[in-house]
Write a structure and sequence with these properties.
By secondary structure, this protein is mostly beta strands. It has a single domain, classed as Rubrerythrin, domain 2. Helix content is about 10%, strand content about 20%. It contains one helix and three strands. A three-stranded antiparallel β-sheet has the order 2-1-3, covered by helices on one side. The model has no long low-confidence stretch (mean pLDDT about 90). Bound molecules: zinc ion (ZN). The site of zinc ion (ZN) has 8 residues, from loops.
Length: about 70
């Protein structure tokens, strides 16, 4: 149920969730705060449609998921 309204970056931010970005090439995993992306990406954007590039190996085969554990 918690995923019901987590389609956009704004939804993630409201719920206090982070966006997990994992590289399938080298296994590099990052947890991004949605708010940190707002400067470049609209909060109305669907997070699943965003394209990321691995900061370690530069690979584009990146998976995205939601980190629902509030660690902050
Ligand atoms: Zn990588």
């Amino acid at each position: 149920m918690a995923y019901r309204r987590c389609e956009t970056l704004g939804d993630l931010a409201e719920n206090g969730f982070r966006l997990l970005v994992g590289c399938r090439n080298c296994g590099h995993l990052r947890a991004l705060r949605p708010a940190s992306l707002f400067a470049r990406v609209s909060p109305a954007r669907n997070w699943a449609a965003l394209r990321f590039r691995c900061s370690r190996c530069g690979g584009c085969d990146v998976m995205r998921s939601i980190d629902t554990q509030r660690t902050t």
